[in-house]
């Protein structure tokens, strides 16, 4: 690849101190009920960078890490991260041998998956560390209740398999009080009783971020917060979390346009009076959803300003009224919102999605990612 100039064209800045503080809050909540914290760093750390987030989370008090797939988990091992590490969603053609060799805990949802893990254990001579997953109502991954008694018996009978934990995932923990939460907790308790009857003594984990924040009775041995690690709050109540990701660019051109002139493809916005426009070189190829056209603000020179006309692939246009920002002035697309600027949550609300999708969508080849903090 050619030598790249590190310009601040499309820049994601990740505040590792914010991640450490967010995890400190979550792990203090968990510790209050005797639970440890598994920080979830799947999808490249929700778009923030898995290895960097993992190190910051461990400094904040996490003792486990969670990744979606074995490839993600192996990348963390390759980055030198040697703490307990769990990965839970593999394809039928995945070989579990590298997981066992790297000391990665794997999830098992079915007898067939158990057989494949046991086979890898026999081939490698390494004991497999398994977390059995019960489907308590999300109807996604996990063993259905009717197959669970056979699965726990089969797992208990496998000579090379250690059942470290049993676990499940909640469907609506972000709506505290939703009756599905208690229903899933009851099914989880029933499944635990069956595991004990089969002679197993597994750790238990169930809580995502929302349940870590709102349901201390469901913390069990380990909590699995993801989104809150990154400072995005999944529950209605206020929590002292700081969004870790800021997305910014800069002003590359300004121009005065006369009343009656229109802006960007389709000329969808027309100036009602003379105004100064600032050109910002980011667009939908950099993670600004085109569907935000006409309803997007940026933070520029200490205030919110509207983006006019359509968001293009590579650029957008900000209305600065009678202000004339200097070339190179920083433009914040979203960030902490602490001064009143836009947030990933605001983007999500405006286009009908969740902030999870906004931040995980920011890992793009054209977007430069830098880190601040993370020393202590
Ligand atoms: C993503 C995920 C989490 C974390 O969920 P958040 O809502 O981001 O806290 C926990 N467990 C599993 C199985 C997940 O897939």
Total of helices: 11
Indicate the proportion of strand residues: 15-25%
Q: What's the total count of β strands?
A: 19
Strands ordered across the widest β-sheet:
11-14-17-16-15-18-10-1-19
Low-confidence stretches: none
Share of residues in helices? 25-40%
Distance between termini? 34 Å
Bound molecules: pyridoxal-5'-phosphate
In N-to-C order, the SSE pattern is EHEHHEHEHEHEHEHEHEEEEEEEEEEHHE
What is this structure's SSE topology?
Blueprint: E1 11-15, H1 16-32, E2 36-40, H2 42-46, H3 50-59, E3 64-67, H4 70-78, E4 85-87, H5 97-101, E5 105-108, H6 111-124, E6 128-133, H7 148-157, E7 161-167, H8 179-197, E8 203-205, H9 209-214, E9 222-223, E10 245-250, E11 253-257, E12 262-263, E13 269-270, E14 275-280, E15 297-300, E16 303-308, E17 316-319, E18 330-334, H10 344-351, H11 355-360, E19 368-372
Helix pairs in contact: 1-3
Protein name: Alanine racemase
Organism: Prauserella rugosa
Catalytic activity: L-alanine = D-alanine
């Amino acid at each position: 690849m050619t030598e790249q100039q590190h310009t601040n064209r499309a820049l994601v800045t990740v505040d590792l101190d914010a991640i450490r503080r967010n995890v400190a809050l979550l792990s203090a909540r968990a510790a209050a009920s005797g639970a440890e914290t598994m920080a979830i760093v799947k999808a490249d750390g929700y778009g923030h960078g898995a290895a960097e987030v993992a190190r910051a989370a461990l400094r904040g008090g996490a003792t486990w890490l969670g990744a979606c797939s074995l490839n993600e988990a192996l990348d963390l091992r390759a980055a030198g991260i040697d703490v307990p590490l769990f990965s839970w969603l593999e394809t039928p053609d995945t070989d579990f041998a590298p997981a066992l060799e790297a000391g990665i805990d794997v999830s098992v949802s079915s007898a067939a998956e158990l057989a494949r893990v046991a086979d890898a254990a026999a081939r490698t001579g390494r004991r497999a560390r398994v977390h059995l997953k019960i489907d308590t109502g999300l109807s996604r991954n996990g063993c259905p209740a009717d197959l669970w008694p056979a699965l726990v018996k089969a797992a208990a009978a496998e000579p090379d398999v250690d059942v470290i934990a049993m676990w499940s995932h909640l469907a609506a923990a972000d709506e505290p009080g939703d009756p599905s939460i208690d229903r899933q907790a009851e099914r989880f308790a029933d499944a635990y009783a069956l595991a004990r009857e089969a002679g197993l003594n597994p750790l238990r984990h169930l809580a995502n971020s929302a349940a870590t924040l709102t349901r201390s009775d469901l913390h069990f041995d380990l909590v699995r917060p993801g989104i809150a690690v990154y400072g995005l709050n999944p529950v209605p109540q206020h929590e002292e979390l700081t969004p870790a990701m800021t997305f910014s660019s800069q002003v590359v051109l300004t121009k005065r346009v006369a009343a009656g002139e229109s802006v960007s493809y389709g000329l969808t916005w027309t100036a009602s009076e003379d105004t100064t426009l600032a050109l910002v070189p980011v667009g939908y190829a950099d993670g600004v959803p085109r569907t935000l056209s006409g309803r997007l603000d940026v933070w520029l020179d200490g205030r919110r300003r509207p983006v006019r006309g359509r968001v293009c692939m590579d650029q957008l246009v900000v209305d600065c009224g009678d202000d004339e920002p200097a070339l190179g002035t920083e433009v914040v697309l979203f960030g902490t919102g602490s001064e009143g600027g836009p947030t990933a949550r605001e983007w999500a609300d405006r286009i009908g999605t969740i902030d999870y999708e906004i931040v995980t969508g920011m890992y793009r080849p054209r977007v430069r990612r830098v880190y601040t903090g993370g020393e202590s």
